[in-house]
Q: What sequence folds into this?
């Protein structure tokens, strides 16, 4: 990637101060982020619950950034109408959660929002090829689903997976948003971009810095 303008930077709101979420989404927009990454879990596919649609709807009027939903849930289609009504711009479902992936993807498309597939770190990418023409985004987790609760860090095993998705998209003549999430810090960005990532959902490494806007600029500068 030769230009920083091609790299989108988002923030996983899960890592924010949950006692001040209204202030946090405003802070993300002011800092210069490109999107908000919202984890929605069902307590089964992932043991936590993340953000319910009611919370997402309450936050939606407070900033203009796209809301991109990372949906870790069994039978994910049951959440689609509520998430769209709440203000979702993109819904990214886990391939591992779908009994019938093609049909589920089509149900997202019917909601007239962006469509994404998420792959946990240990999941083979073989199922992407027949579905690649149907999706806008592929989200690759750089640690096992739910490991963020346990303090797990970025796993470099995701790097060749990013390249695999990039190459699969190129062979299919598809332009995809290749997104990575999970423990990403500034020192990982250049390698991820070189591998083919086009979007990064930053977490605790972004929220803990004293100046979020400066950190984002430093990240963009680091890949020149």
A:
């Amino acid at each position: 990637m030769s230009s920083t303008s091609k790299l989108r930077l988002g923030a996983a709101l899960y890592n924010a101060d949950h006692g001040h979420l209204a202030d946090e989404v405003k802070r993300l927009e002011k800092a210069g982020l490109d999107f908000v990454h919202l984890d929605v879990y069902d307590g089964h596919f992932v043991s936590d619950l993340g953000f319910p649609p009611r919370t997402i709807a309450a936050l939606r009027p407070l900033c203009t950034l796209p809301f991109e939903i990372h949906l870790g849930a069994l039978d994910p289609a049951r959440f689609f109408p509520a998430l769209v009504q709440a203000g979702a711009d993109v819904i990214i479902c886990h391939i591992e959660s779908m009994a019938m992936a093609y049909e589920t993807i089509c149900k997202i498309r019917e909601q007239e929002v962006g469509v994404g597939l998420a792959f946990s770190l240990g999941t083979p990418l073989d199922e992407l090829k027949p579905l690649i023409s149907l999706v806008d985004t592929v989200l690759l987790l750089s640690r096992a689903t739910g490991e963020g609760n346990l303090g797990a860090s970025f796993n470099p095993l995701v790097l060749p997976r990013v390249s695999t998705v990039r190459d699969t998209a190129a062979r299919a003549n598809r332009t995809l948003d290749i997104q990575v999430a999970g423990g990403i810090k500034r020192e990982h960005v250049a390698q991820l971009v070189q591998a083919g990532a086009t979007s990064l959902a930053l977490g605790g490494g972004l929220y803990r810095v004293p100046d979020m806007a400066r950190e984002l600029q430093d990240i963009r500068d680091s890949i020149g």
Summary: The chain has one domain: 4-222.
